[in-house]
Amino acid sequence: MISNYSSIPQLRLDKYLYLMRLYVRAGFQYLQNHDWEAELVERWDEVMEGNRKKENEEEGKEEVDRWLAPLSPGNGKVPDGVRYHVCDVWMDELVHVVGEDELEGLEKKGLGPMLMAPIMRLEREGRTKVVRGRAREVLKDERIEDWGLQQKEKPGDDVKGEDEWAGFED
Questions:
Q1: How does pLDDT run along the chain (170 residues), one tens digit per residue?
Q2: Mode of pairing for the β-strands spanning 51-56 and 61-66
C-alpha cells in the first residue's frame, strides 16, 4: 500500500486511510490480547519503523534489516502522508483498544515509552519539519502528558518556518 500511495484515486483514499487505522488498531489489540509482553511491543515497534536488528553469527556483527514501513523516518519511499496519518490515529487507536482509564496502567508497567518509541523516533529523525511537528503533537497529547515523553524543542525546528509569510503588519 505504501508503494502505491501516490497513485490511489481520490475517491478511494478514505478507504485506504481507514484500512491503515484498522491496521494500527489490530496491532494494539494483538498486544493487549498477549498482555502487553515487552518483547511483542518491541517487535511491533520494529514492524512500524521498518527496522529489525539481527545478529550475523558468521561475522559476529549486528545488522539492521530494513523495509517499507509506515513510520520509518529516513526512508524516502514512504510518503509523508502515510506517516502523518499513522501519527494522527496512533493515540486514538491506543485509547480505543485500552480505554482512557487504563492508559495509566500501561505507564505503570513501563510500557509507555515502548509504545511511543516509533513516534519518538519519528520526532527526532523525521525527514520533514511537518512530520516531526506532527509526531511532537502526538507526544504532547494530554492523555499521556504524565508519561514524560516530550522532548525539549530544538531551536529552528518549529513547524512554522522563519521563511513563511506572517501577514501584513499594521
A1: 677 777 788 778 889 899 999 999 999 999 999 999 999 999 999 889 887 766 666 666 665 666 778 888 877 888 888 888 999 999 999 999 998 888 888 888 888 889 999 999 999 988 889 989 999 999 888 888 777 665 555 555 554 454 566 667 75
A2: antiparallel
112-113-117 Cα angle (round to 5) = 125
Query: Measured between alpha carbons, how far is 92 from 80 in angstroms, rounded to an integer?
Result: 19
Cα gap 103→61, rounded to integer Å: 38
* Coil, helix or strand at residue 61: strand
